[in-house]
Amino acid sequence: MEDKRCALVTGGNRGIGLEICRQLALNGVDVILTSRNESRGVEATDKLSISGLHNVVFHQLDINDPLSIAPLVKFIETHFGKLDILINNAAELGIIFINDKEFKAGGGFVQLVDEKAHLLTNIVKEPYELGEKCLQTNYYATKTITEALIPLLQLSKSPRIVNVTSVYGDLYWFHNEKLKHELQDIENLTEGRIDEIIRMFLMDFKTANLEKNGWPLTTSAYKVSKAVLNAYTRLMARKYENIMINCVHPGYVMTEMTSQTGFITEEEGAKGPVMVALLPDNGPSGAYFNRTQVAPFSSIDAPFK
Ligand SMILES: NC(=O)c1ccc[n+]([C@@H]2O[C@H](COP(=O)([O-])OP(=O)(O)OC[C@H]3O[C@@H](n4cnc5c(N)ncnc54)[C@H](OP(=O)(O)O)[C@@H]3O)[C@@H](O)[C@H]2O)c1
């Protein structure tokens, strides 16, 4: 009997996550579309079902709520007996758009460069609490759900984890050479050291010392969250040699997160994560993909102009 693959997507109710669910289902994969909000998740799943995709089921999951993880694990055990693909897509940006019109007129995220950080305070704001929450969701909650699902992934013949990262996680955006080196020195980096780096960042964020200590100055917490997610991807790939674990930047996509300012559609944006999830067994692990191409973790030139 053919072994049908089963994938779980976090934040599957909208944006790139929903499109990843659709494309995986079109590829014959059974999909567990998860959403923190039950009615939004059911609505998204119904939409896919109406379009003819009956291999998508909904299950509630707020990656920040540990209580929502155990029922999900039980559900997968009962209905699928294993998990083949985990797509960690759910994330938050950690900033507030104060002037959406001006943000859009200025070219969206393209204008958010550190050299202009002082000119942007009337367009976007990064309150400390949102930055802290951004790191909690994009890094710590992603780690928690990943670790909870590892035993089910280990029951798959070809397990895959895809961490949806961002070009903003590129170490190009960091101005502290020692830190850049540490986050790339995978032989010596540990999860404990990543925790310390996050604590250092939060302290500098709180005390307005980001510039002094070489942190990114715009969308700072988001950039740090994705940079540590990339480092974690590499550490996990070394730890679990039988699981193919990669991270993928989907492109600059027109979604709610970007206030619809992206260059590409959700359909185009989902292509990279889906391609990496369906790579053959001899594909890379611990790699970073910019859309569908392997790319460096630290670029020499601005990876996003
Ligand atoms: N759009 C881009 O240009 C772009 C570029 C680079 C990387 N990315 C990455 O691509 C991924 C998807 O982004 P997007 O543009 O599709 O964003 P989006 O439209 O803002 O969607 C984010 C999704 O994450 C969910 N989410 C947030 N916190 C959650 C939590 N605690 N538990 C469960 N779900 C949660 C949201 O749920 P609710 O609907 O309940 O809020 C929503 O489904 C993210 O990892 C993002 O960082 C996007």
TrEMBL record:
**Matching CDD domains:** carb_red_PTCR-like_SDR_c
Q: What GO molecular function annotation could you give as one example from this UniProt entry? A: oxidoreductase activity, acting on the CH-OH group of donors, NAD or NADP as acceptor
Pfam families reported in the protein's UniProt record: adh_short, adh_short_C2
Gene Ontology annotations for the cellular component aspect, listed alphabetically: membrane
Entry keyword set: NADP, Oxidoreductase
- What is the enzyme's main class? oxidoreductase
Known EC number(s)?
A: 1.1.1.-
Q: Does the keyword NADP apply?
A: yes
Q: Does the keyword Phosphoprotein apply?
A: no
- What InterPro entries does its record include? CBR1-like, NAD(P)-bd_dom_sf, SDR_fam
Regarding protein family, the annotation reads: Belongs to the short-chain dehydrogenases/reductases (SDR) family.
- Spell out the PANTHER family in the cross-references: (+)-NEOMENTHOL DEHYDROGENASE, OS02G0640800 PROTEIN
The protein in question is named Short-chain dehydrogenase/reductase
Source organism of the structure: Ambrosia artemisiifolia (Common ragweed)
Provide the organism lineage as a comma list. Eukaryota, Viridiplantae, Streptophyta, Embryophyta, Tracheophyta
